Amino acid sequence: MALEIERKYLVNHEKWEKSERTDGQFYRQGYLLTDPNKTIRVRVTDTKSFLTIKGLSVGATRPEFEYEIPKDDAKQLLDMFAIADLTKIRYKVLFENKVWEVDEFLGENEGLIVAEIELLNENEVFALPNWVDKEVTGEQKYYNSNLSSNPFKNW
C-alpha cells in the first residue's frame, strides 16, 4: 500500500500572477465515491488518465492506490458513473528542490487556487514559496472530493 503525505495551502493570487511558471495542464476529475473515510476518483489529463482510491486522512497522511487507465475508459467512467466532478489547471513548480502542484480551479470553483506539496514524512522541513498563503491541510472543505459537491462559489 502506498501512502500519500501531502500538505495543502491557499495561494495569494497577486503573488502567484507575478510568479514564473511553466504551462499548466487541464484536469477533469470526477468521483465515483465520496465518503469521509474513502474516495474513488477518475482523472483525465491531456496525456494520461488514472483511477485513484484514497483512504482516511490522518494528519497529512492517507493510503493511496493509483492506476493509469485507458483514456477512453476514464472518459466513460466520468460520463456514466461520476456523482460529482470538477475541472482545473494544474501547474508544477519546482521550488527549493521540491515540486509544488498548484491548482487553479475552473467552473463552480473559479477563484480558488490551492498549492500542494508531497513529502517523504510528516516532519519533513521545506521552504515556502512567496505565493503560499495560509495552510489548509486537513480542512475538508478544500479536498477536491468536497469541492466537486460543495463548490467554492457556494461558500
Strands, helices and their partners?
Layout: E1 2-11, H1 13-18, E2 25-35, E3 38-44, E4 49-55, E5 61-68, H2 71-81, E6 84-95, E7 98-105, E8 113-118, E9 132-135, H3 144-149
Antiparallel strand pairs: 1-5, 1-8, 1-9, 2-3, 2-6, 3-4, 4-5, 6-7, 7-8
How would you characterize this protein structure?
It is built from 3 helices and 9 strands. The protein has 155 residues and is mainly beta. The chain has one domain: Beta Barrel (Hypothetical Protein Pfu-838710-001), CATH 2.40.320.10. Strands 1-5-4-3-2-6-7-8 form an 8-stranded antiparallel barrel. Strand 6 (84-95) and strand 7 (98-105) form a beta hairpin. It starts with a strand and ends in a 6-residue tail after the last helix.
By secondary-structure content and strand pairing, the structural class works out as mainly beta
CATH homologous superfamily (4th level) name: Hypothetical Protein Pfu-838710-001
Count of helical stretches? 3
Taking strands numbered 1, 2, ... along the chain, how are they ordered across the largest sheet?
Answer: 1-5-4-3-2-6-7-8
Proportion of helical residues: 10-25%
Roughly what fraction of the amino acids lie in strands? over 45%
Q: Provide the gyration radius in Å.
A: 15 Å
Tell me the major beta sheet.
Answer: 8 strands, antiparallel, barrel
**What is the CATH fold-level name?**
Hypothetical Protein Pfu-838710-001
Number of strands: 9
Order of helices and strands: EHEEEEHEEEEH
Low-confidence stretches: none
Question: How does CATH name the architecture?
Answer: Beta Barrel
| First-last Cα distance | 35 Å
Shape: globular
Which class in CATH terms?
Mainly Beta
- Give the overall pLDDT as a whole number: 96
